[in-house]
Task: inverse folding
């Protein structure tokens, strides 16, 4: 949009970049889910249709499971879809309960920070039982860590994509951007280590039963 590319070519170019990125990263379930959802949303924008996140998410799940139904029992698949659902569903309920408008004024910094906390909390509430089941860990520090880690991950992806692009053009340019990738990865590692060492950052748990997890989600939905 900044480059003044017209609407239709812009969406098509974005779709091509998404597909290339997905192939480059090995089409793992989280990447496949995000890519399919992105393509559905872009297709909706091309047709000038309103996007419904749950429909996009459901279609992405159907496509992935059609290719490989065993993915349903994969931890990465479950965490990927549950995190997105809970990031949308839980914050909406909290916003409504606290009477916080979904679209806040950009200048209202306290409400912006509160919304970021609530969204991070929503994701954590959604995936906590699944994380406990597969990894036997309970980590409330995730809510705070996301403030730094999520922007860092975005920066890492941007640096990585730039590194690949410029490496094709010139090896010397590639080396410069490779250092940027190294630096951002180092910052990510240091950030995770810092939060890991905080008091009460995590605790190990016994594996919760399936019935307990089902009960948890029923209560959450209610």
Result:
């Amino acid at each position: 949009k900044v480059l003044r590319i017209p609407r239709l070519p812009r969406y098509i170019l974005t779709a091509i970049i998404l597909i290339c990125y997905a192939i480059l990263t090995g089409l793992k379930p989280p990447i496949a889910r995000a890519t399919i959802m992105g393509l559905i949303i872009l297709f909706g924008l091309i047709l000038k249709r309103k996007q419904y996140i749950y429909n996009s998410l459901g279609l992405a799940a159907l496509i992935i499971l059609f290719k490989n139904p065993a993915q349903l029992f994969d931890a990465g698949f479950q965490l990927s879809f549950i995190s997105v659902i809970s990031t949308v569903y839980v914050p909406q309920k909290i916003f409504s309960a606290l009477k916080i408008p979904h679209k806040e004024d950009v200048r209202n910094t306290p409400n912006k920070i509160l919304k970021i906390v609530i969204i991070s909390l929503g994701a954590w509430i959604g995936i906590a039982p699944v994380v406990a089941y597969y990894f036997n860990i309970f980590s409330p520090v995730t809510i705070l860590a996301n403030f730094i880690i999520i922007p860092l991950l975005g920066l890492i992806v941007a640096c990585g994509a730039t590194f690949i692009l410029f490496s094709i053009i010139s090896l010397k340019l590639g080396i410069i951007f490779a250092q940027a990738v190294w630096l951002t990865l180092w910052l990510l590692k240091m950030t995770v280590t810092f939060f890991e060492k905080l008091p009460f950052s995590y605790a190990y748990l016994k594996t919760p039963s399936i019935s307990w997890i089902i009960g948890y989600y029923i209560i959450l939905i209610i």
Observations:
- The CA atoms of residues 33 and 61 lie 7 Å apart.
- The first strand starts at residue 137 and ends at 138.
- The helical segments are 7-24, 29-46, 53-67, 75-98, 109-135, 142-169, 171-196, 210-221.
- Strands lie at 137-138, 203-204.
